[in-house]
Amino acid sequence: MSTTAEFRCRCGEVRGTVTNASPRTVNRVGCYCDDCQAFAHWLGRADLLDPQGRSDIVQVAPATFTFVQGQDRVKGVRLSPKGLYRWYASCCNTPVGNTLSPSIPFVGIHASAFDQDAPRADTVFGPPTGAIQGKHAIGEAPPGTTKIRPSLLLG
Question: What are the structural domains, with CATH classification, of the chain?
Answer without folding.
Answer: 3-153 (2.170.150.70)
